[in-house]
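R.M. (postdoc): so does anyone remember the format we settled on? I'll just put the structure tokens first.
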């Protein structure tokens, strides 16, 4: 007797083709013990009729399951559950824990309490998502990324895909960074001075851990990227916030006795201010005179589409005091999680050793896929497409903001992908954001960007990287209406 077809069902909400879902359904039934070794499967015709799919779909799924040794085919007798599949162990799980450990006190929220910009997981379902840093599927080059991924998965590159490189990075990716990406920032470096990271966040964390000691002293921008504060705190160092103005971080306001200064000079986060070359030079001069280091987060460098970019701080650094961090999160997509660190060889050596203790190295297949995407010219084409689209969206934003009388606190003179906005005094943008969410509009309240004790609740960020240009006017109108209604 075959297993009754009534025991087979396709779960709702499962992604994949019908063929893939049928294969997953059968494999799950075998692995959980619902279908046992030697039992006969329903005929392809019978299961297809039960599931409401074509017979060829079931036949192809069965064929794949045979190839994976979940099923065996016995001539005209049909398909049977393979004798060689693993089965669930015959033991009972332990009873539910009674909670004798006070995990809340033990963990003390040391990491989960870090302030971060919150957004709903289903943000793409909202018609007016003015949120920052997400990829736009209408702009991304899916076809060529897929071809590069297939090339990286091919037999010729099997070693790159499967090898444990220990502390080393993909040489093709390093070569492209050295010859193309870094020179655009005015940086010359050797392979021993570059480290691939799991995005800029990982790069900055590594820098903080290597450069700071317990009791050390670091400067962060205010308002600024919240992650800087958390990284410094995890290193056991003291944090001093320094206010930013229209030129970014104020060098004249730096305190005495600082060890490391963290800055987003290209496009200050979140105000978008670009630090002038004269101020960058002044920062380096102060670093030499007062013996501190600079960590430069090369935030949104590629999105400078209005005027030519300024040289990076690292490119002006003759004293070897700057560590430069960058990533492909904004220019390719954030889920790629690939970035880099550039710094003096002794620093990179220590950062590499620390990375090896935490995650060994970023996945080889991702590194090689990115290397192909870059070297074949697809990356530059993508960046140019994004710049053109962002320029149109920025113009639409400027016009809508002016039409409705909203106040821009910072928009950046080089481009970028967002506006830093200031609401009237008394407006709590966190409350405003919740009200707008019910209207299908997502904005980012600004309180989280300010250092504790200096919070301003009437600031917010409007980004245009993920919203179609045609949606911008109506979305801004809803923001203005909600602002007027208080």
């Amino acid at each position: 007797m075959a297993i009754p077809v009534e025991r087979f069902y396709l779960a709702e909400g499962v992604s994949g083709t019908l063929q893939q879902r049928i294969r997953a359904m059968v494999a799950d039934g075998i692995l959980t013990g619902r279908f046992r070794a030697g039992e006969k499967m329903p005929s392809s015709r019978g299961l297809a009729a039960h599931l409401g799919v074509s017979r060829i779909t079931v036949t192809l799924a069965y064929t794949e399951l045979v190839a994976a040794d979940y099923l065996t085919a016995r001539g005209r007798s049909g398909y049977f559950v393979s004798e060689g599949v693993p089965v669930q162990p015959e033991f009972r799980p332990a009873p539910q824990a009674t909670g004798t450990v006070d995990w809340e006190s033990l963990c003390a929220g040391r990491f989960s309490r870090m302030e971060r910009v919150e957004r709903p997981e289903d943000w793409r379902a909202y018609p007016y998502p003015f949120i920052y840093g997400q990829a736009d599927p209408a702009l991304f080059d899916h076809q060529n990324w897929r071809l590069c991924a297939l090339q990286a998965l091919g037999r010729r590159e099997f070693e790159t895909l499967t090898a444990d490189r220990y502390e080393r990075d993909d040489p093709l990716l390093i070569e492209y960074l050295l010859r193309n990406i870094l020179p655009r920032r005015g940086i010359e470096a050797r392979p021993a001075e570059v480290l691939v990271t799991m995005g800029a966040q990982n790069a900055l964390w590594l820098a903080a851990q290597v450069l700071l000691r317990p009791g050390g002293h670091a400067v962060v921008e205010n308002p600024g990227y919240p992650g800087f504060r958390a990284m410094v705190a995890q290193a056991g160092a003291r944090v001093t916030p320094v206010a930013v103005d229209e030129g970014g971080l104020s060098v004249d306001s730096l305190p005495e006795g600082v060890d490391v200064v963290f800055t987003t000079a290209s496009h200050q986060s979140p105000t978008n201010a670009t630090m002038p070359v004269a101020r960058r030079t002044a920062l380096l001069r102060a670093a030499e005179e007062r013996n501190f280091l600079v960590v430069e987060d090369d935030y949104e460098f590629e999105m400078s589409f209005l005027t030519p970019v300024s040289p990076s701080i690292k490119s002006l650094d003759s004293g070897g005091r700057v560590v430069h961090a960058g990533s492909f999160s904004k220019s390719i997509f954030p889920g790629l999680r690939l970035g880099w660190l550039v710094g003096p060889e002794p620093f990179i050596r220590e950062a590499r050793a620390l990375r090896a203790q935490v995650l060994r190295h970023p996945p080889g297949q991702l590194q090689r896929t990115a290397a192909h995407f870059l070297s074949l010219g697809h990356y530059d084409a993508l960046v140019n497409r994004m710049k053109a689209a962002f320029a149109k969206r920025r113009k639409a934003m400027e016009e809508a903001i002016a039409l409705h009388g909203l106040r821009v606190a910072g928009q950046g003179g080089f481009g970028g992908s967002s506006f830093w906005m200031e609401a009237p005094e008394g407006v709590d943008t966190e409350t405003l954001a919740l009200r707008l969410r019910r209207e299908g509009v997502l904005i980012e309240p600004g309180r989280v960007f300010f250092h504790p004790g200096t919070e301003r609740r009437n600031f917010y960020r409007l980004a245009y990287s993920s919203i179609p240009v045609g949606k911008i006017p109506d979305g801004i109108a809803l923001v203005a209406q909600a602002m007027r209604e208080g």
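R.M.: ...and that's the designed sequence above, right after the tokens. Also worth knowing: The chain is about 35% helix and 15% strand. Residues 378-403 form the longest helix (26 residues).
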